[in-house]
Design goal:
This protein has about 400 residues and is mostly helical. It has one domain (about 85-120, about 145-400). The chain contains 13 helices and no strands. The protein has helices at about 1-10, 20-30, 35-85, 90-95, 100-125, 135-185, 185-210, 215-240, 245-275, 280-305, 315-355, 355-370, 375-400. α8 (about 215-240) packs antiparallel against α13. The longest helix is centred in the first third of the chain and has 51 residues, at about 35-85. The protein starts with a helix and ends with a helix. It is a multi-pass membrane protein. Keywords: Membrane, Transmembrane, Transmembrane helix, Transport. It comes from Chloropicon primus. One of its GO terms (molecular function) is transmembrane transporter activity.
Length: about 400
C-alpha cells in the first residue's frame, strides 16, 4: 500500500492488477474532493473551537479577576462606611435591597419577549401555506402551546419566589455577620477565612444534603483547611496588640466562620432547589430576595430610628449614596461577573480563581500600612503558615470536584 501511494504521488500508474486496482481505488477515495473538503471543514471547525475555548478562558479569568477586585475593594469600603457611623445592620439592609432593581428588568424583558413572540406567531399565521379557511385546529394548537409555556414560566417563577422567601433570612444574616466582622478584625482575616471556611462547610453539606461521593482527597483537603484556620486565628490573636484588640480579632474571625457556614447553606439550597434555572429565573430569584429585604428590613430600621436605637437620621445623604453604589457594584455587578466566569471556565476554575484575592489584600495592606497581622515575627510565621495551609486545602477541594 505504501509503495502504491508513493507511485501515485510520483505521477505514474502501476500495472493493472486486482491488488493494485483496489489500492488505487483506496487512494482515489482518500483523495476524493468531497472527502478532502470534509476533512478541511473538520480541521477548520477544530481550529475555530480551539480559538473559541481560548477566548472563553480569557473572558472567564478576566471576569474572575474583576469580581475578586470588586470584592476586595468593597471590603475596605465597608470598613470605611462603618467607621463613618453606618451601622452593619443599616448597611446590610440598604445594600441587599439593591437586588430589587432586577425585578423591573425581568418584567421588562418578559414583556419584550412576549411582544416578539406574539408578532412572530401573527407573521406565521399570515405566511403559513397550510393555513386554510375553516382550519381551526392550527390556531388552537398554537394557543395551547403558548398557554403551556406561560404556565411553565409561572411555575418556575413561583418556585423561585418560594426559595427566595426561605433563603432570605439566612442570606441576610450571613451578610450582616460578615459586615459586622469588619469592625472587629482585618480584611485579610475575612478573606482567608472566607475562602477556607466556605469550601469546608460546602463540602460537608454536599455530603449530607446533595449525597456527594465521599473522597479521602477532599477529607485531607478539609484537614488542611481546619489546621490553617486554627493557625491563622491563633496568629491573628497573638499579633493584635492589646488584650482587648486580640479578643475582638478572635471574635471577628469566629463571626467570619459563621458567615461562611451560612453562605454554604445558601449555596446548597440554591443548588438543590434551583438546579436548572436559567439566567431569567436566577435574576428573578435575586430580585425577590432584594424586594423581601426592602419590605422587611427598611421598616425595621425606621422603627429602631424612632426608638432612638439607630442614628440613620444623622447620617449625610452622601453616605447613603455610597452604600447604594456599593450594593450595585458589590452585590450585583460582582455576582454577575462571577456567574459569567462559571459559565466561561466552569465552577472549579472559578473557585480556584478566588485565591487571587489574597495577594490583592496583602498588596493593599502593605501600601496603606494596615497590615496588623505582620506586627511581630511569631504572628507573621503563624499567619503565613496558616494562610498557605488554608490555600492548600482550598486548592485540594476545588481541583478534586
Amino acid at each position: 500500500r505504501a509503495m502504491s501511494e508513493r507511485r501515485t504521488k510520483g505521477g505514474f500508474s502501476p500495472p493493472p492488477s486486482s491488488t493494485t486496482t483496489s489500492n488505487e481505488g483506496a487512494g482515489d477515495e482518500s483523495e476524493d474532493p468531497v472527502t478532502l473538503a470534509r476533512s478541511a471543514e473538520v480541521d477548520g471547525a477544530n481550529q475555530g473551537r480551539s480559538a473559541w475555548c481560548k477566548l472563553n478562558q480569557v473572558k472567564g479569568f478576566s471576569c474572575v479577576t474583576c469580581a475578586a477586585f470588586i470584592w476586595v475593594v468593597s471590603s475596605y469600603w465597608v470598613r470605611d462606611l462603618e467607621g463613618q457611623g453606618m451601622t452593619p445592620l443599616l448597611l446590610t439592609s440598604l445594600a441587599n435591597s439593591m437586588f430589587s432593581v432586577l425585578l423591573p428588568v425581568c418584567l421588562l424583558k418578559d414583556w419584550i419577549t412576549s411582544k416578539r413572540q406574539k408578532g412572530e406567531e401573527e407573521e406565521n399565521v399570515l405566511l403559513s401555506p397550510s393555513r386554510r379557511e375553516g382550519d381551526e385546529d392550527w390556531g388552537q394548537s398554537n394557543n395551547n402551546g403558548r398557554l403551556e409555556g406561560e404556565e411553565g414560566k409561572y411555575e418556575k417563577r413561583k418556585n423561585a419566589f418560594l426559595v427566595a422567601l426561605c433563603v432570605w433570612p439566612l442570606w441576610f444574616t450571613c451578610l450582616y455577620i460578615y459586615n459586622w466582622s469588619f469592625v472587629l478584625t482585618s480584611v485579610m482575616s475575612n478573606t482567608i477565612l472566607s475562602i477556607g471556611g466556605t469550601s469546608l462547610f460546602t463540602y460537608f453539606l454536599e455530603l449530607r444534603v446533595m449525597k456527594a461521593k465521599f473522597s479521602w482527597t477532599k477529607v485531607a483537603a478539609i484537614g488542611f483547611c481546619v489546621l490553617g484556620t486554627v493557625l491563622w486565628c491563633f496568629g491573628n490573636y497573638r499579633g493584635s496588640g492589646p488584650e482587648e484588640d486580640s479578643r475582638n480579632a478572635l471574635l471577628g474571625d469566629f463571626l467570619c466562620l459563621i458567615s461562611s457556614g451560612l453562605y454554604a447553606v445558601v449555596s446548597i439550597i440554591i443548588g438543590k432547589y434551583l438546579p436548572k434555572s436559567g439566567e431569567a429565573e436566577m435574576a428573578f430569584f435575586w430580585g425577590c430576595t432584594g424586594l423581601i429585604n426592602l419590605c422587611v428590613m427598611m421598616p425595621l430600621n425606621v422603627i429602631l430610628c424612632l426608638a432612638g436605637q439607630n442614628n440613620m437620621q444623622d447620617l449625610p445623604a452622601k453616605l447613603y449614596g455610597m452604600v447604594m453604589l456599593k450594593g450595585l457594584m458589590d452585590n450585583l455587578l460582582s455576582n454577575y461577573m462571577w456567574a459569567y466566569a462559571v459559565l466561561f471556565i466552569g465552577p472549579t476554575s472559578a473557585n480556584v480563581g478566588m485565591s487571587i484575592e489574597t495577594p490583592m489584600v496583602v498588596i493593599i495592606d502593605l501600601i496603606t500600612r494596615n497590615a496588623t497581622y505582620l506586627s511581630n515575627r511569631r504572628a507573621v510565621a503563624l499567619n503565613v503558615v496558616g494562610a498557605i495551609t488554608i490555600m492548600t486545602g482550598f486548592f485540594g477541594l476545588s481541583l478534586s470536584r
